[in-house]
Amino acid sequence: MIGKRLNDRYKILKLIGGGGMADVYLAHDIILDRDVAVKVLKDQFSQDHDFIRRFRREAESASSLAHPNVVNIYDVGEEDRLYYIVMEYVEGPTLKQYIQEQDGLKVDIAVSIMASLSSAIAHAHENRIIHRDIKPHNILIGPDGTPKITDFGIARAISEATITHTNSILGSVHYLSPEQARGGHVTYKSDIYSLGIVLYEMLAGEVPFNGDTAVSIAIKHLQAPLPSIRENKPHIPQSVENAIIKATAKDPFYRYATALDMSEDLSTVLSPSRVNESKYLVDQLSDGHTQAVPVVSEEKEEPEEETMIAGTPLVNAKASNDAAPPKKAGWKKWLTASIIVLALLFGSIYFAFTWLPQWLHVDEVLIPDNLVGMEYEEASQELTDLALRVEIEEFNDEEAPEGTVISHTPREGTTVKVDTLVTLRVSLGAEQVPMEDVTGMSLQEAENALAEFDSIEVQTRVDDSVDDETVLEQSPDPLDPVIPGETTVRLIVSEQPAMTMRNLRGLTRQDVLGYIAEESLLRGDFEEEYSDNVQEGTVISQEPDWGTEVDEITTVRVVFSLGPEPEPETEPEAASETELDSAEEEEDSLPAVANVPFTVNVPEDNNGQVHHIRIAVADSTTDDPVVVVDKEISDSEVFEIAMTLEDEDDIGYIYLYQDDEENAESPFEFTYDYVKSKEENNG
């Protein structure tokens, strides 16, 4: 490859990188005189036509992005089965290399880089493009420290070509979102999760989850809590760790709503007003859902009121008084007092062990551990049977079926008093949105607009009334309520009809023009040359040759005969001046005058539609074109057009207007010799 010129424009200078999909070369754009990076697909991908189509479409879509933190795509091309993308050349290391060199970045630098990256991802999301493979390896650091993201949309092209369009697990497993790890629906929030992991790595110098296999790492993304970055690096502000926690929530519902929200939050995490920010807590529920948990208030709860037995202090006081009678009371009084005290004492003990527990006892129950995933009606009944009160909170959830319990408060296993209020959070199912209308869009535009849908199935139908790959029909219909992550969209797109080249040899120019006009895929390119074997004015050769199948717009090169090449003129015997003048006058007096046949073609499937035709002629007798035919036709028709050419150098022109628009091939040229030949035929 070194030294090769792609399409006579990009000179390959050296290999600067590569991976499993492509090799990356430094090249020089000869036309614009600038260095560029050229990513060339490897051979195993070049043989897959479906992959090539998707690869080109995704690359062309990504080329529409214009952001200072996105690597620009300049060109997408192919030469000799080498498929390549021409990109902006960023002279500098990848973010992965930069992190390894620095052994983790300073907080302010990492936050600044991530604010720029999340802004770039927000721009891509606004253009309906999900990156799907955000990792430090796909981020370049320019000489001035500017980070730039590359490889937009390429992950999706690989996905479609290798494991079909199902949004399955892609990318490096260290940066994979939980929904990607479980093979679920990939959304814009999947990119936000990957950004959070990259921010963690920039600060910690290592990824949060490691393992011996890709599966073990993916399981950690699904189940393991994110390690606290402040345990080993306490100098990192809590506000910065909060940004990481919020971006990497297991449940997308609790992540930043958009990448722009993340960028705006990062712009203030180092401000003095957020120095004492509390830790953002998330509670990983047993069913895998994530629930935001408020920070516990520092205010102490008021103690419960004590329950007292009426009259007990009085009894104790009286007993105390009666227990110490004056000695002068006598033994009878002492005995009476003792009996009363003992009676009261035994009565108090009996009351304490018999009636007091019934007065003070409040029944307690255990919150069941099987409520999550249960139907609301069933869960509510189970709690009611335990003498608990129930309230319901409903919200959309992409994972939980409609009507099932997602979480509850208090948590399972909690001991509570009877009549405690239990809040059940119940799924409304994934949120339904109106189906977008993509009819009339190109296939590329439609696929970008439907990026969040589960899958897209494409069928083709021959239709030459619209551009190739235009969406003709869609299912579901526009405005139908749909859940993107659970919906397969079926598109019918246009395909130009294939046709087989007919044999043009021996046909006249008018015949060829009529044939090309009837075929929407053909364009004409005419030449002339002498021939001893082919009649003047008829076709000698054609390219593509007859019998060739044509399924895209093609220019047909047709060579017409000028007849035999004239013999070299012999030097005549000297003639008198009078004879020469007479001969010249005789030659000048022989204009070519004939009715030239001119065919106006109407397609066979015209269905009786009437077309307004005007034909104008310009020859030696007119200064400007003169309309000679003005009529309406519904079928092909041949017109005899009178034409006069005074001199061999004169050329006649016929102008054709169909429905007030000039024909694309108009004007049609006619030479003196051609008109002369028609004159002889007419004679």
TrEMBL record:
Membrane topology note: Single-pass type II membrane protein
Alphabetized UniProt keyword annotations: ATP-binding, Germination, Kinase, Membrane, Nucleotide-binding, Serine/threonine-protein kinase, Signal-anchor, Transferase, Transmembrane, Transmembrane helix
One Gene Ontology term of the molecular function aspect: protein serine/threonine kinase activity
- Residue stretches spanning the membrane: 334-356
Under SUPFAM superfamilies, the record lists:
Protein kinase-like (PK-like)
Q: Which GO terms describe its biological process?
A: cellular response to peptidoglycan; signal transduction; spore germination
Pfam families named among the record's database cross-references:
PASTA, Pkinase
Q: Which residues form the PASTA domain?
A: 367-428, 429-495, 496-562
Instruction: Tell me the protein's name.
Output: Serine/threonine-protein kinase PrkC
Q: Whose protein is this, by species? A: Alteribacter keqinensis
| Annotated gene | pknB
